Amino acid sequence: MDREAEMTEWSDDRLDEFKERVNDGFAEVDKRFDQVDKRFEKMDEKFQQVDERFNRMDQKIDAGFARLDGKIDALGERFDGLGERFDAFYRVLVQGTVAVVVGVLGLLGVLIGLVGFQG
Question: pTM for the complete prediction?
Answer without folding.
Answer: 0.44
